[in-house]
Amino acid sequence: MIALILQGRMDSTRLPGKCLLPLEGEPLIFRVMEALIPVRCDIRILACPEDCIPVFSTLAEKAGFVISAGSENDVLERYCCAIRRYSPDVVIRATADNPFVFADAAEELCREAIQLGADYAGYTGLPYGAGVEVINAEALLRAERESTAIIEREHVCPYLYNHGELFKLHRPLAPRKWQGNIRLTIDNQEDYIRSEKLYNQLTQKTTSHERYYGTTILEICN
């Protein structure tokens, strides 16, 4: 069973209220969920702190996601709460500040990870904000048991990719068609303004199906 788990919360020090900022008429977090819909999986989960549920529940339902609550700051624990609740074998990890995540690259990475039996998989060379990580669920549960550093808990995967002696890692350079030295995440006001322009271009020049693929996004950016 493959679970796509999107982490999201309300707090943002650099861009307050970021998840609910409008992007072509819908909140940012909804646009991120929308971008992930083409990625084939068995269940889509929005993992958020308990206090976000009243705000996110309607958006999640509209996008076809279920909600799983967990720790606000210990995001690794938040993922593992979802794993224990839904029992997936493989997790596709995505974050709520990336509305231009490459759905086609995510699907290919997941296929490679399963084929290789990798505990952790992530492409290098993608534009910043375009990628996901694919993790064996049991490996994430082990990381939760063994990791102690704050950065390992907050960023979910460092314990895995920093311990290649414990886990099977797959970290290849992304295929050339998805490579790019551009910034697609939303972390500050400048990112948000740039993202508004890009999303507007995508809606004008592509179909709703095409705009979720990296090849399309890179073509518009270039």
Sum up the structure in keywords.
Spore Coat Polysaccharide Biosynthesis Protein SpsA, Chain A, 222 residues, 9 helices, seven-stranded mixed beta sheet, two-stranded antiparallel ribbon, alpha/beta
What is shown here, in short?
By secondary structure, the chain is of the alpha/beta class. The protein is built from 9 helices and 9 strands.
Structure description:
The protein is α/β, with parallel strands linked by helices and 222 residues long. The protein has one domain: Alpha-Beta Complex (Spore Coat Polysaccharide Biosynthesis Protein SpsA, Chain A), CATH 3.90.550. 41% of the residues lie in helices and 16% in strands. The chain contains nine helices and nine strands. The chain has helices at 28-36, 53-63, 75-86, 103-116, 137-146, 150-154, 158-161, 189-205, 214-221, and strands at 2-7, 22-23, 26-27, 43-49, 66-70, 90-95, 120-121, 133-136, 169-170. The strands form two sheets. The chain has a seven-stranded mixed sheet, with helices on both faces. Strands 2-3 form a two-stranded antiparallel sheet. A hairpin with a 2-residue loop joins strand 2 (22-23) and strand 3 (26-27). Helix 3 packs across helix 5 and helix 8 (189-205) crosses helix 9 (214-221). The radius of gyration is 16 Å and the shape is globular. The chain starts with a strand and ends with a helix. The model has no long low-confidence stretch (mean pLDDT 95).
